Amino acid sequence: GQQLNQSPQSMFIQEGEDVSMNCTSSSIFNTWLWYKQDPGEGPVLLIALYKAGELTSNGRLTAQFGITRKDSFLNISASIPSDVGIYFCAGQLAGYGNKLVFGAGTILRVKS
Amino acid sequence: SAVISQKPSRDICQRGTSLTIQCQVDSQVTMMFWYRQQPGQSLTLIATANQGSEATYESGFVIDKFPISRPNLTFSTLTVSNMSPEDSSIYLCSVEDRTDTQYFGPGTRLTVL
């Protein structure tokens, strides 16, 4: 089936550091979405990307839709303790309608 | 974005029984989906809940095991039938807005003993 390769699997960083994670695939996507999931909660949408090359910010978060439509990255600047959680990329595959494919997730831990 | 609620938020069930999970949205939406998140794993799409017709299931998921109802544009149910411990997961509904962006409910955490 279609797969998204998300990396890194986990990160343990100092408060105040910048964080970067990415997703790649061999398939082409129409939309890229980045979610954050806290323990016991459903995923919360952080950023949605709709066009190849699009660069979008949401506060300290910045994400880009790759030009080839096969990849995306998420950056978090000046991390704080509440950034702890699991970050998922998700994409809507071209030709597969509205179905979302999810990456395996990046676990973020922040040292205060 | 739409406000999505799920009931129950969690449950502990006995093997062989069934549980029906409800998903309610505060506005009419065209697309509703059901996902499963096994412990420590990512999300996997179970099916698309179609209003007024049978749900569309993904490979590996069947209607007899996961019957779904979608009586209107704001409500859907997912039933996990004849449960076994392997069904212990978080079950999530999601809805899609007019920009093709999906938002998730808080999830139902199911434990099967």
Tell how many strands the DSSP assignment of chain A holds. 11
- How much of the sequence lies in strands of chain B comes to over 45%
> Major sheet of chain B: size, sense and barrel closure?
7 strands, mixed
Shape of chain B: globular
The averaged pLDDT of chain B comes out at 95
Distance between the termini of chain A: 40 Å
Question: How would you describe the shape of chain A?
Answer: globular
Number of strands of chain B: 11
Q: What structural category characterises the helix and strand content of chain A?
A: mainly beta
Terminus-to-terminus distance of chain B: 36 Å
Essential attributes:
heterodimer, A: mainly beta, six-stranded mixed beta sheet, five-stranded antiparallel beta sheet, 0% helix, B: 113 residues, mainly beta, four-stranded antiparallel beta sheet
Description of the structure:
The complex is a heterodimer of chains A (112) and B (113). Chain A is mainly beta and 112 residues long. Chain A contains no helices and eleven strands. In chain A, the strands form two sheets. In chain A, strands 2, 4, 5, 9, 10 and 11 form a six-stranded mixed β-sheet that branches. In chain A, strands 1-3-8-7-6 form a five-stranded antiparallel β-sheet, with no helix packed on it. In chain A, strand 6 and strand 7 form a beta hairpin. Chain A is globular and about 45 Å long. The mean pLDDT of chain A is 92. Chain B is mainly β. In chain B, 0% of the residues lie in helices and 51% in strands. Chain B contains no helices and eleven strands. In chain B, the strands form two sheets. In chain B, strands 2, 4, 5, 6, 9, 10 and 11 form a seven-stranded mixed β-sheet that branches. In chain B, strands 1-3-8-7 form a four-stranded antiparallel β-sheet, with no helix packed on it. Chain B starts with a strand and ends with a strand. Chains A and B meet through strand 4, strand 5 and strand 9 of A and strand 5, strand 9 and strand 10 of B.
